[in-house]
Amino acid sequence: MSIEGPSPTVSGNMTSDPDITSNNAARIVRRFPTEEILTGIDIAGFDVTEMRKLKGDTEGPPLQFGERVLSQPKMPPFKEYSKAIQKWEGKVISLSGDTFRATLSPLVGDKIDQEAEIYIEDVTPDERPFIEPGAVFYWSIGYIERPSGRRRESVLRFRRLPMWTGNEVKKKARRDLMHYFDE
Amino acid sequence: MPQIQVQGVSIVLIGNLNPAIFHPSWFAAHNLLRSEEADAANINIIHPDVASFKTEWLEVNIVKERFQIATVQESYYEALRDIAVGILGLLSHTPIRVMGINRDFHFDLVSEDIWNGLGHRLVPKQDWKSLLKSPGMQNLVVQGERTDDLKGYLRVSVQPSSRVKFGVFIEVNDHYILKTDEKEVDGADKARVILSERWNDSMKRSSEIAQTIAKLGETA
């Protein structure tokens, strides 16, 4: 996979690429050193608009700003990234004093369902109101790579969806009922 | 054995968007980010044409036609999905035509021989040698049909890694076509359902594809 060779791109696809080979509207509309944006309709009539990254550069793309293109400030490569050794999706079963009990289903690592008792103190203060039976959280144990070195990390984060919680639904139902009684 | 050095996930939506609303405080107000995360966000720009900011783990880039959120923190993959699900629920009438669940991996292939072996295995050079001096694979793109009941395709890109010496970059684009007719209005809802119900399958499939490709150099 040497990088010598005069051609900047050797597309080695074995089947025909409808985006490139069709003589329809698919076209590359803008090209940057690290990416190209392909837009149009492919031979089957599907929209093929997408951005292709080249050279494995995961930094953010330049941004189209009206007719101009705004380059984002260059970020130091891999300033920080994390790897999970074990990750679970948890569901709260019950609360008791300063702990809560939860089921843990593995997402990464050992494939065994477990139950665990977790200290409420291990949850970030602003997420503690989420701890109620049925609430879903993600718990990841792994390490984080930083310029200063690798360190272990444990991240416990409750699922955040802008939907009503069970209590909110109950409160609303109660309010709706009270409305009828008031009348 | 190839080792993953860095990996990331991004969710891309193509449609008609209003970038100006995507301020970190909007994410916090709708309970998509912690208030502390939103307050500490590094804002590149928020403008009617473009919104771009970063938090400790999340990168947001939105222009009028394209929405992208990404993370390289494996601990936050599900949080990334939940943000997209939350936004699609809040903006359920936004026309969304296409969605990509994209994973990228940088593998360390350990040795130059394995690294070259992978390139030769994927793009045999015998036919190129009469045409080019020292031909080398720069970018291989292979696309396949979906095996589920949804519209779209899977596209895999393989390139030499610019990050890892003797490394390979593999990107798997799990591409969903949500709207093929202008009259269809439920693209955002379709995207939300796919993210909610197919996320784990997509993650697993992409990982298996990337791991399988990365090992090919060992048997070349």
Number of strands of chain B: 9
Q: Which residues of chain B form runs of ≥5 with pLDDT under 50?
A: none
Helix content of chain B: 25-40%
Instruction: Could you tell me the CATH topology label of one domain in chain A.
Output: OB fold (Dihydrolipoamide Acetyltransferase, E2P)
Figure out the total of helices of chain A. 2
**Rounded radius of gyration of chain A (Å):** 25 Å
Percent of residues in beta strands of chain A: 35-45%
Total count of helical runs of at least 4 residues of chain B: 5
Q: Which blocks of ≥5 consecutive residues of chain A have pLDDT under 50? A: 2-26, 28-33, 54-59, 73-78
Reading the helices and strands of chain B in chain order gives: EHHEEEEHEHEEEH
Oligomeric assembly: heterodimer
Widest β-sheet, arrangement of strands of chain A:
8-7-6-9-10
Distance between the termini of chain B: 14 Å
Structural class of chain B: alpha+beta
Greatest interface (CB-CB under 8 A), with counts per chain: A-B, 64 and 82 residues
Strand order of the largest sheet of chain B: 2-3-4-5-1-6-9-8-7
Helix-residue proportion of chain A: 10-25%
Description:
The complex is a heterodimer of chains A (183) and B (220). Chain A is mostly beta strands and 183 residues long. Chain A has two helices and ten strands, in the order H-E-E-E-E-E-E-E-E-E-E-H. Residues 2-26, 28-33, 54-59 and 73-78 of chain A have low confidence and may be disordered. Helix content of chain A is 11%, strand content 40%. Chain B has a domain at 3-17 and 65-107 and 147-156 and 174-212. Chain B contains five helices and nine strands, in the order βααββββαβαβββα. In chain B, strand 4 and strand 5 form a beta hairpin. The longest helix of chain B has 29 residues, at 187-215. Chains A and B meet through strand 3, strand 4, strand 6, strand 9 and strand 10 of A and strand 1, strand 4, strand 5, helix 3 and strand 6 of B.
